[in-house]
Amino acid sequence: MQIRMADFSFDPFCAIVSGDQKLEFVNEGNNRHSFTVPKLDLDVLSGASETTKPVGEILEPGKTHKYLCKYHPRMTAELQVE
Q1: Potential cystine with 19: which of 11, 42, 51, 61 (Cβ 3.0-4.6 Å)?
Q2: Report field, pTM of the whole predicted structure over 0.70
Q3: Distance CA 77, CA 61 (A)
Q4: How far is 17 from 52, CA to CA, in rounded Å?
Q5: 3-33 burial code (b ≥16 CB/10 A, e <16)
Q6: pLDDT for 47-63, tens place per residue?
Q7: Whole-angstrom Cα distance, residue 40 to residue 67?
């Protein structure tokens, strides 16, 4: 699944994924952003993308996890792992 970062927001704001899916974070903005949860801190430079390992290896399935950009703490979103 692809999650886009631009203009200080994540799109989609709330994503639903299975535990075996990988996430691709694409930074379409002009600023550096991150995908930060307790077990992972992934930096994505402007114009670049990064892909995670399967989400179930990072986050507990059956829950909704909040994440943020460590550079812009008001930039938050949710990830529901099934």
Answers
A1: 61
A2: yes
A3: 17
A4: 13
A5: bbbeeebbeeeebebeeebebebbbebeebb
A6: 999 999 999 999 999 99
A7: 10
